[in-house]
Amino acid sequence: MSTRIQPQSIRTVGELFANAAIKDVETPIYPPKRSLLSRVHLYQGDITEIEVDAIVNAAKSTLQGGGGDLVDGAIHMAAGPALAKACRELYPGRHPCPTGDAKITPGFQLPSKHVIHTVGPRWSVSSDTKTMASQLASCYRKSLQLAVDNNCKSIAFPLISTGIYGYPIGEAAHVALKETRIFLEGNNQIYEYVAIMRLHGSSFTRLQPENSFHIIFPLGPEYITESVELLSSVKGPVDE
């Protein structure tokens, strides 16, 4: 049986603030909202091991695995051949999934109940950055809405398009977290959102100077008392 990681065992943004793994800023983009800090978890590890209602796959347009991203191949391998069959039934022949769209299948042999497949944009210096950002944002919006439509309460995302598709990690994280914040504020059904922060050798430490967690999910002064209480309950250092 594969390793199963429960979302409750993964530190939330609130706990990382309390443990000083994330530093607050004076000029956040959004106002502090403590309820969000307990719903968003940050994880460094294998997305195929997380036991949630849905994991999101950074897929290629045919949804056949192994070409959209290294995460894509890992998910198909862990789920077993039934996943590729289910994807073929979604898009028979040569009809690709459009960039920015998302589709859902069962998780089969994965700990997660579902896999949501979304096709991110390929980064190119010659392409319109606004268009690419809009397509990437659509991946998160449509995946989250698809999760809600299928009664998912928990979901795990990789940083879409940051593998072989080449989207800059800092910019991709900003788009991902902005869309996450907007969606979670308007929808309470998803109460556990896991952001996977290690892809292809990157790590939370590497992302720290440029990530958007502390800007989009700020701590805020009204959270100080609670953060002190959290600090005493956080066990051990943040994984590196």
Characterise this structure.
The chain has 240 residues and is of the alpha/beta class. 36% of the residues lie in helices and 12% in strands. A 6-stranded mixed β-sheet has the order 1-6-5-2-4-3, sandwiched between helices. The C terminus is likely disordered.
> What is the string of helix and strand elements?
HHEEHHEEHEHEHHH
Amino- and carboxy-terminal Cα gap: 26 Å
Structural class estimated from helices and strands:
alpha/beta
Q: pLDDT below 50 for ≥5 consecutive residues: which ranges?
A: 199-210, 224-240
Query: Reading side by side through the largest sheet, how are the strands ordered?
Result: 1-6-5-2-4-3
Question: What's the short story on this structure?
Answer:
The protein has 240 residues and is of the alpha/beta class. The chain has helices at 13-18, 34-37, 70-79, 81-90, 129-149, 169-186, 204-207, 213-216, 224-233; strands at residues 40-43, 54-58, 102-106, 114-118, 154-157, 192-196.
SSE diagram, text form:
Layout: H1 13-18, H2 34-37, E1 40-43, E2 54-58, H3 70-79, H4 81-90, E3 102-106, E4 114-118, H5 129-149, E5 154-157, H6 169-186, E6 192-196, H7 204-207, H8 213-216, H9 224-233
Helix pairs in contact: 5-6
Pfam family, one: Macro
Protein name: A1pp-domain-containing protein
Organism: Suillus discolor
Descriptors:
240 residues, alpha/beta, disordered C terminus, Macro_dom, A1pp-domain-containing protein
